Amino acid sequence: MKERFHRVLRKKSVDKIPVCSVTQTGTLELMEKTGTSWPKAHYDSIEMAKLSKAGHTVLGFEAVRYPFSSFDIPTSFGCKYSEGTFNSQPHMLDFPVKEVSDVKDISFPENFFEQNAVKTITNTTEILTNDPDLDDCPLIVGIIGPASIASCIAGINNYLVWTITEPDALRSLMEVGADVCIEYSNRLYDLGVDSVVIIDSEGVPDLVAPSFFESAILPVHKRMNKKIKKPTILHICGDATMILDSIKTAGFKGVNIEEKVRIKDAADIMGDDICIIGNISPAHDLLFKSPEYVYEQSIKCMEEKVDILAPGCGLAPATPSENVEAMIKARDDYC
């Protein structure tokens, strides 16, 4: 599985298309089968390792992906979050940058790797890399990217307004965010992770103008990827079609796209440069449709030349396991 995963990221030939998730995999069925649950699996490394491992050992995904939420970096900057519940992730309650004048006070968080939420991820990594059951299973960690970090620190309303009125302030926040992504990713790679997924959906045209992505976010992505030791994957929600040409130049080796982007369009744009990952709808298909429907959509993705068959975004907690299993059966039959 590891060899196949790394070959696909380099756009090399493989014996069969990998099926995995590069987004969150915690479901209620997995919680029941493993004896753990949210919210404790967000905060306890042993519980996080147990639940994330089940995405591979129970569901059959050909990778282990964690964590299940993305509050680790924001809390290091002073953002406040709810604890979350058994079927909902923690959500933001407060953020430090209320005014443009507050931006000057934001710098690389002191003792970043000693922050509790960050230590949970690094400790989970150490548990999983030492698990003999996972010797041949890729480990994938998701962290939010520079634009998402800026939106958390300043709040989404400020972020959206400032893309027009205060772009320099956002660039400053994103540069600090990129520094965190560089240091964090390199530490995770040193610990044995196979891939870091940069989640940066606040750059999608559904939210901000493509010109802002091109002028402000893209240069930060390029700098970040030049300094991260190993290849990264970008996850971006929404319809990213208009910025795929820019993403192609950002230095990512893979891009995970939602169902709003046609696999064929993405493959035509990315060509032999970037691995296309996706794009089974986690809400419309995996949560609500039948296994037969998911099977058909999976076949369609592979016919349109997806490189890794995966959900387009994180699994909903109530996702039935049989629908994920339908993805794997479709791959096995197709290949």
Give the SSE layout.
Elements: H1 2-9, H2 28-34, H3 40-43, H4 45-57, E1 64-66, H5 72-76, E2 80-81, E3 92-94, H6 116-129, E4 139-144, H7 146-154, H8 156-165, H9 167-190, E5 195-199, H10 210-227, E6 232-236, H11 244-247, E7 254-257, H12 263-270, E8 275-280, H13 282-287, H14 291-303, E9 308-311, H15 321-334
Helix pairs in contact: 4-6, 7-8, 7-9, 9-10, 14-15
Structure in a nutshell:
With 335 residues, the protein is α/β, with parallel strands linked by helices. It has 15 helices and 9 strands.
Overview of this structure, please?
This protein is of the alpha/beta class. The chain has a single domain, classed as Alpha-Beta Barrel (TIM Barrel), CATH 3.20.20. It is built from 15 helices and nine strands. The protein has helices at 2-9, 28-34, 40-43, 45-57, 72-76, 116-129, 146-154, 156-165, 167-190, 210-227, 244-247, 263-270, 282-287, 291-303, 321-334, and strands at residues 64-66, 80-81, 92-94, 139-144, 195-199, 232-236, 254-257, 275-280, 308-311. It has a seven-stranded parallel β-sheet. Strands 2-3 form a two-stranded antiparallel sheet. The longest helix is centred in the middle third of the chain and has 24 residues, at 167-190. The two termini are 15 Å apart.
